[in-house]
Design brief:
The chain is α/β, with parallel strands linked by helices. The protein has five helices and six strands.
């Protein structure tokens, strides 16, 4: 295989990385937002290496008329991920992944501040979980809250409002879930905003309390650009 041909996988891999990280936001399906500069740098390095290899091959051919090497054909398998990034980016993780892993414990550090007076109160799934399981003051009792996530199917008429959170990349994603009672059951992976109150059970403020919500409204919303973070409902902030 000529060195010029060997350079093709490097060039395509570099273009693929630059496409998902520099031209689009597709990289957010696989890694955290802070990884963008590293992806851009890696794509630029691969692209430059490929172009330099092709230019060196042309120079060598011009001097002695020969430009052959014995690189294994398996190297062309590098074309598959490169073409995937350029032509069809794999979808983000969703209900399929969340349904196959238990929700990770949410541990609140320090004491709880008084809840804002807003109603419905915008909350993240992690904040709601920690209030239900750890707030001995039971400030969440009777409060109408609003949260956003995607749908993970459950049993019967129950389902789970879910968020996947990354430490680094999609391989280490962990899930935060709130079981929803009542209301319609949207299709899996649908992003929704749910308004409701805590579903009673066990002792609120302890590990026996269910992380669950009695839904009042369920509204379909677009998937956020960065879906791998436990954020407040779109356009909302915690009122004081």
């Amino acid at each position: 295989m000529r060195r010029t041909l060997q350079a093709v996988p490097l060039v395509l891999c570099g273009l693929g990385l630059l496409h998902v990280s520099l031209v689009t936001d597709l990289y957010l399906r696989y890694v955290k937002e802070g990884m963008r500069p590293l992806l851009i740098a890696a794509g630029a390095v691969l692209l430059l290496l490929g172009l330099a290899s092709a230019l060196l091959d042309r120079g060598a051919n011009g001097s002695d008329g020969h430009g052959h090497s014995g690189t294994p054909g398996v190297a062309w398998l590098l074309l598959l991920p490169a073409l995937s990034l350029l032509c069809y980016a794999p979808p983000a993780l969703g209900a399929y992944t969340a349904a196959r892993q238990p929700a990770k414990p949410v541990v609140h550090q320090g004491g709880f501040e008084p809840l804002p007076s807003a109603s419905p109160l915008p909350m993240t799934l992690s904040d709601f979980t920690s209030r239900v399981r750890e707030d001995r003051g039971q400030a969440i009792k009777g409060r109408v809250v609003r949260m956003t996530g995607f749908v993970t199917p459950g049993d019967g008429d129950e389902w789970e409002l879910t968020r996947l959170i990354l430490n680094c990349c999609a391989a280490d994603a962990r899930s935060v879930k709130v079981r929803v009672h009542g209301g319609p059951v949207p299709p899996a992976d649908t992003w929704v905003t749910v308004t409701g109150t805590w579903h009673p059970g066990g002792t609120l403020g302890t590990a026996s309390a269910p992380v669950a919500l009695d839904a009042r409204t369920v509204t379909k919303v677009p998937r956020p650009t960065n879906g791998y973070q436990d954020a407040l409902p779109p356009g909302e902030s915690v009122a004081r």
